[in-house]
Specification:
It is a single chain. By secondary structure, the chain is an alpha+beta fold. It has a domain of 149 residues: 2-Layer Sandwich (60s Ribosomal Protein L30, Chain: A), CATH 3.30.1330. 50% of the residues lie in helices and 13% in strands. It is built from nine helices and four strands. A four-stranded mixed beta sheet has the order 1-4-2-3. The longest helix has 21 residues. The N and C termini lie far apart (119 Å).
């Protein structure tokens, strides 16, 4: 009796699995093992794990936090424009001064737009804005090879969720992205040298402060 019911139970089980199962899993039977797990980005988690274990990820996070803390990382633009006005140029000069202190580090510029206009046009406009920032940083002595990649998010990441014109959405953002390949980096025990280099460059003698007229009079009265 048990032998006659076994095939029926097996068939019922297979039908139940087929009804409840994920078609992706069953289609994977005809593909190389593990392919459906990749989803085209398998290398990114691996790289992330390597960077975390060797300390590189934390150093990048710390440097990016410091960069954002010490300089303004964002410049904004007029409507439908990639021109850098005087305010934006002043911000980028400060960025360039900071970036020049770290020849070991690469940076990435992200271009954004507001939500006025088509997706395709705004994608191109975001790229033009990123290009404008890179060109200006290069004019300030930053090697283009250290400006790793230009990315345009177009209108997909607004700061202010509005379909109207919004200057805060029309921006370019500079961020730390990695280390220069083959360059002595902060991870090989050289971080103290970087700190020392910054200290020496900043240790310029300040001229004595001149007394104002009122202070001079007060001093003479004493």
């Amino acid at each position: 009796m048990a032998k006659r019911t076994t095939p029926l139970l097996a068939a019922a089980s297979l039908l139940a699995l087929t009804a409840c199962g994920d078609s992706t899993i069953f289609s994977s039977w005809t593909q190389p093992a593990g392919q459906f797990l990749d989803e085209g980005s398998f290398g990114n988690p691996t790289m992330n794990n390597v960077q975390i274990h060797n300390g590189e990820k934390q150093v990048l996070i710390d440097l990016n936090s410091r960069f954002a803390r010490e300089v303004d990382t964002v410049v904004t633009f007029d409507f439908n424009s990639a021109r850098l006005d005087g305010t934006a140029q002043a911000v980028l000069r400060r960025q360039a001064s900071w970036i020049r202190q770290f020849p070991e580090v690469r940076f990435r510029v992200y271009g954004h737009t507001d939500l006025v206009g088509s997706d395709a046009y705004n994608k191109r406009l975001g790229k033009r804005r990123a290009n404008a920032v890179v060109a200006f940083l290069a004019s300030q002595g930053v090697s283009r090879s250290r400006l790793e990649a230009l990315v345009s998010f177009g209108e997909t990441q607004p700061v202010i969720a509005t379909t109207e014109r919004e200057r805060r959405n029309r921006r370019a953002v500079t961020e730390v992205s990695g280390f220069v390949k083959g360059h002595p980096t902060l991870l090989n025990g050289k971080y103290a040298e970087v700190i020392f280099r910054e200290y020496v460059e900043s240790a310029t003698e300040q001229p004595p402060q001149e007394e104002s007229g009122l202070e001079a009079i007060a001093g003479a009265a004493q």
